[in-house]
Each structure stands twice: as C-alpha cells, then as structure tokens.
Specification:
Blueprint (H helix, E strand, L loop, with lengths): L4 H4 L2 E4 L15 H6 L1 H7 L3 E4 L3 E2 L11 E5 L6 H13 L3 E6 L9 H6 L13 E2 L19 E4 L4 E4 L14 H17 L3 E4 L16 E2 L3 E2 L2 H4 L5 H11 L7 E5 L5 H7 L9 E3 L21 H14 L7 E2 L9 H4 L8 H13 L4 E5 L20 H12 L5 H11 L36 H6 L4 H14 L1 H5 L1 E5 L6 E8 L2 E8 L5 E2 L6 H4 L2 E5 L8 E2 L4 E6 L1
Parallel strand pairs: 1-2, 1-15, 2-5, 5-9, 9-12, 12-13, 14-15
Antiparallel strand pairs: 3-4, 6-8, 7-8, 10-11, 16-17, 17-18, 18-22, 19-21, 20-22
Helix pairs in contact: 12-16, 13-14
The chain binds 1-O-alpha-D-glucopyranosyl-D-fructose and calcium ion.
Calcium ion binds next to loops.
Length: 555
C-alpha cells in the first residue's frame, strides 16, 4: 500500500530564531522549541517544519549554510537536536528539515576551497564564469539586490549567486555535487528526520546559455525564466528520489519559485517519482506593481480566487497541493488578506483559516498564525533585520525609484520581517520570548495577542484552528473531496464546494467587513446539513456577516 500520511497531515512551521529563547541571549533556540512541544500537540498539528538550524554565518538567517551536518551555535548543539527530535517522536510529531541546496554559504569549506584556484578539486562545485567585455557574464540581478555575479580577485572570474553574495549557487551539473547532497540527505534520514522542505528547489538547473534577462526598474535583468524550472530539474529530482527519498518514509515539499501548473504536475506527480507537493507562489504575488513585490496595494478577491481555484481544479487527480497563507518570507495573512484592526482581527483570522483548511491539499500553519499575529508595522529602517528589506530599501531609494515614504509603506505591507517578530507567548516582558534583548523587536500588541491569553479563551483563534485541524481527521471529504468553485464573480465572498461520493461540503467566506447577500445556505437541503464550523454562533438568512465563514456538510 502506498503511504500517503502527508495528505492527512497539518504542518506547523517554526522559524527557530523567533520561536522561543531558552538561555536569554535574545535568539530562539532548539531547547526553546523542545520546551513548547506540548503547545503544538495541543493545537493538534502532525508535522513540524523547521527553518534551517544548520551551522551558518547568518547572512540570510540560516539560509546560508556553512556546514550541513552541524547545528548553528546560537541554536544549540547536536545533542540538543537529538533530544528535540526524540521528544517530538515521543509525542507522535514528525520533523521536516529545511534543505537548502541551491546554494551554500561562502563560508562553507567547499566554497572556500573552490575560490582558491581554477584546478582546485572543489572548483566545479560552483558556477564560475569569465568576465564578458571586462564586466559581469550577463545582466542578471540577485534576489536581494545588486548583480547576481560576484567578481573574485583570486582567479579573475565571477561566481553566480541568485541570492546574496554570501550564498553562491551550487553547480548541480557536477555529479559529485549531487552525490554530496544525496549522501548528506541520507545521513539526516538515518538520524530519523521525517522529511524535507526544499528551498528554491525549482532553481537548481540553470539555462546553460546564461542569456540576459528582461530589465526592470532600469537596474538588472530578471533571471527567473533561466533559473526556474530549468532543463534538468526533473532529472535531478528523479535521481534524488531514486537515491534517497524512495528509501525512507518521508514527506517532501519543494519550494518552487516560478512554478506553473504544468511544472507542478511533474514535481508533485501522484506517481511519486519526484516530490509529494510544491509551494506555488502565484497567490503570494496577487498584488504586484511595476516594482515587483514592493507595493502597499491591497489585493483583489477576484484575482486571488482565480489563482487559488485554478490550482485546486487543475491539479485534481494529477498532483497534490500545499496550502498556505503565511511563512517566514511573507507578511502576516491577517494583515494582508484579512483585517488586523481590533474589531475584526479574530473573525477574519478564523475566516482565512477556514478558507484555506477546507481546500484540497496539505495545510501549513506558520508560527503565530494560530494566534492571529499581525504585521510588525516598524516605524524606522533601523528596526528591520532582513537582508532583502534592507538591501531593497537602499537600492530603491538611492536610485530614486521609490522615495523613503513609499518604501517604508511597502515594507510595512510586505517585508519578510513582518513574519519574523518573536512568537508572542504571554504578556510578560518581551512576550515571554526571551529574558534578554530580542534580536528583532517584539510586536507591542503582544499584551493583547499572545498564546497564554488564547489558551484561556475558548473562542480564540487558537481553538478555532484546533477545531479546523481536528475536522480534517474526522471527515474524509476534507482530504479527498473534489473541489468546485462557486459564486465565481462575487466581489466579497469566496465560496466553493467539495464533493465525495454522495457527500457535499459547502464552504463560504466573506472577505469583507460588510454584511453581504448570500443565499447558498438557504435551500432546504443545505438547511438539513450539519454545520462543521463557523466563526459566528448565529447566522442570518440571506446574508453573510462581516468576515463570516461557514462550512456545512450535506449528506
Ligand atoms: O525563498 C526563496 C524565494 O523565492 C523568495 O520567497 C525570496 O526569499 C523572497 O522572499 C522574495 O521576495 C527561500 C527562503 O524561503 C528564503 O527565506 C531565503 O532567503 C531564500 O530562499 C534563499 O535561500
Ligand atoms: Ca537562545
């Protein structure tokens, strides 16, 4: 029998730096995680995905790895890790590791060797190119600003870094690199980890022609058509599957920047030849301006629905979806897609949870989402820690593309640091995250929004998420029902049904703060159905109240 436990699971993402600090240095750590496992058990999640905990100089908070088989000093030791893993397993929780193998840190010993000279045995572990007319090999920009090429004096050549210059891209065309990666993965699997979330795995195969990209904002060329879903990516993943993944009982999710439906059908094919599922990015890019993600514009429900419904219907029977609103790279969902003001924060957070968890796929909950944590709304540039935010501010203001006010406003809306403020545990100093000085400011709203308070309030967002997660275990239709969009022109309501054999699940969510007309629940047959969950106790016929969400099971 094929093992598909990952379809029934709910995954909780921990960003270790911001989760819980056990020793007062202001930085979250592994012992902090271990100390809070009962909280996660109470929520009811099955799997924990840990953002990177490996040795790293932290240019990009651990996404720049200098040793894949060691733990970051600030986070603890390998003994702490082993204890954490065994405490998870004791509680029936599984652990997914972040696997960052598109690039390493420039402080990884492979790269330190590679840059020494052209005949070093590690030279071909990375992507080196000669200068073109005395300049960069092409016009590609890095995701974190500046050119994607860095000149290296020692050999007079450039190396490729799609992210920061401290994150050189590995050369996957080199058989030895692939073998090293596969051996390292096997080592972690033998240690007992239960899966991998693969960082920008869609970027490991580059177009060998390295053509110039289309220029944006008069700065650099866009490399995504030439680095995302490249010519050999599926071959590499199939090899990884044969050599590692198929030998263990794992859950695998590929972070797939630039993935299309057609590509997703290959990455997440139900035949199990590559990965279980991918993170697609389209709904995260629902609002884009001429400056890419840097805008404070609000989304349109019509566009959001179009994207999500497309992924729901087009992968049906072909591949499996992952479902997420939040992660460590995105602003807080309640601020972006809901309403984080005091009136509607909890209602809209519950509505968003309903909308997502009733869709077909594996849901992900990002730390604090279950509390309805909000954006940080930092007032000063000095509050920001994220390399992407800091570099973008500099590049855009210095080049007069956006002014200070515009950029600060865009950062408030979309900076990655919105998701990275410390987890709000209670109303004591620093939200109970640390007894020291936190590495990034705590959101002052922790006095109102924190886990302790949520656990004491039976109507909290926390208990609502707990119920959503539990429903998944009780109703097969939530896992297997076929998705169909409803009211596809409505400007305020997102509605759909799921169908399994003779059963139907009806889901409707009001994304607005108005009371809106809705007659989906008024027919006799629906009235006879069983309400599985709602964020309102009383409903009114013919309408949905502000941010109301309703789920009815019709036998
Ligand atoms: O993110 C890759 C990615 O494509 C983007 O989401 C990007 O980080 C950015 O947010 C675009 O605005 C992954 C990790 O999740 C991210 O934290 C890392 O910084 C990045 O890869 C590099 O490893
Ligand atoms: Ca610490």
């Amino acid at each position: 029998m094929k093992k598909t436990w990952w379809k029934n699971s709910v995954i909780y993402q921990i960003y270790p730096r911001s989760f819980a600090d056990s020793n007062g240095d202001g930085i979250g750590d592994l012992n902090g995680i271990t100390a809070h496992l009962d909280y996660l058990k109470e929520l009811g999640v099955d799997v924990i995905w840990l953002s990177p905990v490996y040795q790293s100089p932290n240019d990009d908070n651990g996404y720049d790895i200098s040793d894949y088989q060691d733990i970051m000093k600030e986070f603890g030791t390998m003994e702490d890790f082993d204890r954490m893993l065994s405490e998870m397993h004791k509680r029936g929780l599984k652990l997914v590791m972040d696997l960052v193998v598109n690039h390493t840190s420039d402080e990884h010993h492979w790269f330190m060797e590679s840059r020494k000279n052209k005949d070093n045995p590690y030279r071909d572990y990375y992507i080196w190119k000669d200068p073109k007319d005395g300049k960069e090999p092409n016009n590609w920009g890095s995701c974190f600003g500046g050119s994607a090429w860095e000149y290296d004096e020692a050999t007079g050549m450039y190396y490729l870094h799609c992210f920061s210059k401290k994150q050189p891209d590995l050369n996957w065309e080199n058989d030895t690199v692939r073998k090293e990666v596969f051996d390292m993965m096997t080592w972690w699997c033998e240690k007992g980890v239960d899966g991998f979330r693969m960082d920008v795995i869609s970027m490991i195969s580059k177009d060998p022609a390295y053509p110039d990209g289309e220029v944006h904002d008069n700065l650099y060329g866009d490399n995504s058509p030439y680095v995302c879903n490249g010519p050999r990516v599926h071959e590499y993943l199939q090899e990884m599957n044969q050599k590692v993944l198929s030998k263990f009982d794992l859950i695998t999710v590929g972070e797939a920047a630039g993935v299309t439906i057609e590509e997703a059908k290959k990455y997440a094919n139900l035949d199990g030849s590559e990965l279980n599922m991918v993170f697609q990015f389209e709904h995260m890019g629902v609002v884009e301006s001429e400056h890419g993600k840097w805008t404070d514009k609000r989304f349109e429900l019509k566009k959001l629905r179009e994207i999500l419904n497309k992924w729901q219907t087009e992968l049906e029977g072909k591949a499996w979806n992952s479902l997420y609103w939040d992660n460590h790279d995105q602003p807080r969902a309640v601020s972006r897609f809901g309403n984080d003001g005091p009136m509607y924060r909890e209602l809209s957070a519950k509505m968003l949870g309903t909308c997502l968890h009733m869709m077909k796929g594996t849901p992900y909950v990002y730390q604090g989402e279950e509390l309805g944590m909000t954006n940080a709304y930092f007032k000063n540039m000095e509050d920001y820690r994220d390399i992407e935010s800091i570099n973008a501010y500099k590049e855009y203001t210095e080049n007069h593309i956006m002014n200070h006010e515009e950029m600060m406003s865009a950062l408030k809306a979309v900076s990655r640091d919105n998701a990275r403020t410390p987890m709000q545990w209670d109303d004591s100093a620093n939200a109970g995250f640390t007894t020291g000085t936190p590495w990034i400011s705590v959101n002052p709203n922790y006095l109102m929004i924190n886990a302790k308070k949520a656990l004491e309030d039976k109507d909290s967002v926390f208990y609502y998420y707990q119920k959503l997660i539990k429903l998944r275990k009780e109703h097969e239709i939530i896992i297997d029902g076929v998705f169909k969009g409803l009211l596809e022109d409505d400007e305020n309501i997102y509605a759909y049904e799921r169908v399994l054999r003779e059963q139907k699940l009806l889901v409707a969510c009001n994304f607005s703060e108005k009371t809106v007309d809705c007659n989906l629940f008024d027919s006799e047959i629906v009235k006879k159905g069983q309400e599985l969950i709602s964020n309102y106790v009383y409903h009114e016929e013919g309408v949905l109240k502000p941010y109301e969400a309703r789920v009815v099971l019709i036998p």
